[in-house]
Amino acid sequence: MVSSGKSGMGGYIVSDIRFRLLTLVLLSILSFVSVFGAGVVFCWWIFFAAKTTFAKKSWKVVMLTSTLMGLIPSVVLFFSSGDVFYGAKIFVLVLLAFWFSASLLPGEFMSFFVWLCGKRVGFDLGIIAEFSVQALSEIKYDFSHLKSALKIKGQKFSIFAVPTLSMGLLVLSLRRSSFQSLILARRGYTSGGTFVPVFFPTIYDYLLPLTAVILFAVLFIS
Q1: What confidence category does residue 190 fall into, taking pLDDT thresholds of 50, 70 and 90?
Q2: pTM
Q3: DSSP string, 15-75
């Protein structure tokens, strides 16, 4: 994070999760209103969010996952005489999800939930969210190590290796969750806690939701 509001790779850094969540909700609703709305949100993503997304995520993974997630419902609806453009909305939503996860910083969910729900319920929700985000990042880390193990054994990654790798990831995640639960229990954690929410809003924190509100208002009024 830097004070200018941009990362070293050129992506916008939105350091206040409250504004980012507001932007995400507005744009998600807008993309579902119509195909035109989804197209407008896609243009917004290219201008404001693409650099941040690709700074943290592989563009191949982002585009391939988004395309597949959007293509599958469109194909199903095509053969059932439904809205074939529904997939375009899913495509944009997945891109927004990638942007949000790429711009997420450690401790943001804790700050947000404590600010929103207080020291007891907010702290519990925050710690669950933080553990969930941590688990996802650790799964990605474990997956890269499992792929390296396959290479060392002279094996190539294929769809047939997915069940085995998935089982390995599941076992590692369960062991890690059990260990974390044991630590919390030994420290006497039951519910709630003391945590001071911290936010560092910059000009981009106000700019992104402002553009989302403007797009939302223009498309709904027109």
Answers
A1: low
A2: 0.75
A3: --HHHHHHHHHHHHHHHHH-HHHHHHHHHHIIIIIHHHHHHHS-HHHHHHHHHHHHHHHHH
